[in-house]
Amino acid sequence: MEPLIAPRTDFSIEAINDDWMVVGKPAPLIVHPTNGREEITLLGELKKRWPQDEFHFINRLDRETSGCVLVAKSKKAARIFGKLMMRRQIHKKYLAIVHGWPTWDEILVDRPLLRMGEIKESPIWVRQMVHDSGKASVTRFELKRQFRREGQQFAMVEAQPQTGRTHQIRVHLESLGHVIVGDKIYARNGEDYLEFIESGWNEELQKRSLLSRHALHSSMISFQWEGKAFEVCCPLPGDLEEFSLGLSEKKD
Which of 18, 19, 53, 62 does the annotation list as catalytic? Predict the structure, then answer.
């Protein structure tokens, strides 16, 4: 089955040693195979370059999310990183471009998340929602910049997730009234996603969504390794950089 939008494979290596690497994943590109489907993946591209090596993903990004992916190069390293993850000693920052201008400079969102289909009918199986019976989910947001583009208001927001739930940043921003630009699942009640799955990408979807993928980027990951602190950054990719070059209004 061909992907609806061709994947990008121009990944970068932002940091590397004998035990691990931080890969800058492009979007769209899925991290590893799912549901038995044969398709181009980050795992497959890494194996092409280093066919004899092991790769264990410590964090995973959605197909349309770009940025930092921490990869262990042995089972031993993966176990160590797994313990750091459980202790919340691996820290991540994301950048998101959202619709509208937030009225806050910083905000902590502590709202549990639940898969929508568990409590009501949802044509999109993976879609999440804020719900009191969901799992604890906490994200800190900071407004970085506000700008206009073609008369519309947008903002660049930094997100620091304290937990690691599915679509956490995307749902928390939706709950604040600031959907991420290009988010097919959480904008317009998921209608664009359903059309995309049925018909593929088209000019009308491009006009509504503004971007062919959601504007979410994993910009930094930090951790301790063998007593030394590492902070690795992945620069904002060209599509998001270009989109954000609007007329700045605040936070420059």
Answer: 62
Q: How far apart are CA 141 and CA 157, in angstroms?
A: 7
List residues bridging with 180 in a β-sheet.
Answer: 98
In sequence order, the 6+-apart residues with CB closer than 8 A to the CB of 245 are: none
- Euclidean distance between CA atoms 79 and 56, whole angstroms: 10
Question: 3 in a domain, yes or no?
Answer: no
**β-strands 56-57, 66-72 pairing:** antiparallel
What average pLDDT does this structure show over 63-83? 97
DSSP state of 6: P
Tokens 């201008």 belong to: 101
Domain with 141, as residue range(s), is 12-250
In a domain, 193, yes or no: yes
Cis omega (within 30 of 0) for bond into 28 = yes
Query: How many C-beta atoms lie closer than 10 Å to residue 156's C-beta?
Result: 22
Most confidently modeled of 67-76, 124-133, 205-214?
67-76
Show the tokens assigned to 224. Answer: 């301790």
Told to judge if 62 belongs to the known catalytic residues of this protein, a careful annotator would answer yes
Tell me what pLDDT residue 250 has: 55
User: What is this structure's pTM?
Assistant: 0.92
